[in-house]
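User: Design a sequence. Structure:
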């Protein structure tokens, strides 16, 4: 290779590296997102939050083009998010459709996990269905058994079929057996979900920036709903009295 070509190739490699670092930096700081779903295609927007967002000014947050919010309530058989009660009360004083989510543990019986959630999350008129967040598991068969026990207990208590939150990867390895029985909420921040029209909610970004919170996590998760505002309202059972 001639000296001229070595210089040209070196310059190209440097440009790719610098450009990649720049794009990575823009993504890390929340300036650039890999997904930006069309508002025409997905007009119903929402967030999910936990104690990492700190104290949330819910009227401010709700007034930024969002329609729903899922709030972390519990994890495993004993953990309760320290900000759940405050978030739940304040969020339900806005016009948002509000739901709660539980982080599933493969090391804990489904029945005791359900008891933890039920003791924490009250039955409220107009609430969205409970969500079970499935992000990791141990023994597949045992985990599926405990997950089913958790889902059954939540459905019996709240009278709503729970939503399963997962990723494309875990869907293939673990959650596909539950498809068709439960609504799916898919986390896919690099591309649209690979499931076509089988999902109900899509978490498309973990680098959202909105006003109204002051926690150690400066970003907020952004989501879309697969249907219309009327269809979202149909999930809110028992219905909000008019």
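Assistant: Done.
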């Amino acid at each position: 290779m001639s000296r001229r070509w070595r210089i040209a190739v070196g310059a190209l490699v440097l440009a790719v590296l610098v450009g990649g670092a720049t794009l990575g930096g823009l993504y890390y700081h929340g300036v650039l997102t890999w997904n930006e779903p069309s508002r025409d295609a997905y007009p119903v927007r929402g967030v999910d939050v936990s104690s990492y967002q700190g104290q949330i000014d819910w009227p401010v947050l709700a007034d930024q083009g969002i329609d729903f919010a899922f709030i972390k309530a519990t994890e495993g058989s004993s953990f309760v998010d320290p900000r759940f009660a405050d978030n739940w009360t304040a969020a339900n004083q806005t016009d948002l459709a509000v739901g709660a989510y539980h982080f599933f543990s493969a090391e804990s019986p489904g029945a005791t996990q359900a008891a933890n959630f039920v003791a924490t999350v009250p039955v409220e008129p107009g609430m969205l269905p409970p969500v079970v967040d499935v992000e990791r598991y141990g023994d597949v068969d045992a985990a599926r058994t405990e997950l089913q026990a958790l889902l059954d207990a939540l459905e019996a208590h709240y009278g709503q079929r729970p939503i399963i939150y997962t990723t494309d990867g875990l869907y293939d390895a673990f959650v596909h057996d539950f498809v068709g029985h439960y609504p799916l909420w898919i986390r896919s921040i690099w591309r649209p979900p690979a499931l076509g029209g089988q999902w109900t909610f899509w978490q498309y970004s973990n680098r959202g920036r909105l006003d109204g919170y002051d926690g150690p996590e400066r970003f907020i998760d952004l989501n879309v709903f697969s249907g219309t505002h009327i269809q979202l309202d149909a999930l809110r059972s028992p219905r909000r009295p008019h």
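The chain has seven helices and nine strands. The first helix runs from residue 3 to 28.
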